[in-house]
């Protein structure tokens, strides 16, 4: 199979598996236990916390809170900060193209608790205009959440510029960096963020583990109570093997990022050029340059149903998607593409091809050769 859905998940890196194995076998202690086996597990968790904090340029390891994944991290940040600060202000701001883990949480805070939610538009390339955010800020704005890079179209947002704006305001700043973790140079100081979410399985780590960076002094009301783990912000027994895997995967991804991005960008550009040359009715969606290095998002044109295209590609041995894996199976236009002004019939033809460590030049050639005839066949059927 040619696997081109790395934005959905990535294969586990062999070095990550090797780092995890002792904690899946002989080093099985509970980090909350006082005897040696438990303290060895606690040491592994705290060492992982230090490694990740250093890579993020966090001020202290205690600013790292391990969670069960990106969705949980987003929920913990948004609900936690909003509820902790509701006496200071009740306006929330986000963008129209956020992942549903952010949008649905913001909407629930508005519907269930009465927060005032402002959802900002984006331009035709999926970029938030910082001027729009500046105009939307009010004295009662308590929390702003903007993703670092979009999962469906790959567009990268001006996070450092937004962070600089919000330093002059009392609002706290959360960034969903789940898609960016393996590709962007994440520096929480340079970005000016108060909270940031990551998920290991997006950069060749294990599924089921994420983190929330929480700047010291950021108020957070945790909805999870119990044993008091993670400074009482995320109670529950630590998944030691997964946490060790997160730290190993993140360090590998950030260490190899520059060389990897150069290779993936070259493959991406060749794939885009080849497909657009063979598919005159198709066009690239998202920003042409400010995008993730291995991310190709195409609109194949009205009359092409993405679900049929994905099934045809699967039969040809190519794994792809139409957008967010969290929204797969829905026969409706993506909220991201609608926010970008894409007509619904064209939005239904969206195809996402995302490259990764194992993608080769030969595979790119095969996709360029195989995809256009499949599109032509589906177009004939539609007519």
Task: Describe the model.
α1 runs antiparallel to α8 and α3 packs parallel to α4. It is built from 13 helices and 12 strands. It has a 7-stranded mixed beta sheet, sandwiched between helices. Strands 9-10-12 form a 3-stranded antiparallel beta sheet. A two-stranded parallel sheet has the order 1-11. It has 2 domains: 133 residues, Aspartate Aminotransferase, domain 1, CATH 3.90.1150.10; 242 residues, Aspartate Aminotransferase, domain 2, CATH 3.40.640.10. It is an alpha/beta fold and 383 residues long.
Topology overview:
Blueprint: E1 2-3, H1 14-24, H2 36-56, E2 64-67, H3 70-84, E3 91-95, H4 100-113, E4 116-120, H5 130-136, E5 141-145, H6 159-166, E6 172-176, H7 188-191, E7 195-199, E8 210-214, H8 240-255, H9 257-278, E9 283-284, E10 295-299, H10 306-315, E11 318-319, H11 335-339, H12 344-347, E12 350-354, H13 361-382
Parallel strand pairs: 1-11, 3-4, 3-5, 5-6, 6-7
Antiparallel strand pairs: 2-8, 7-8, 9-10, 10-12
Helix pairs in contact: 1-8, 2-8, 3-4, 9-13, 10-13
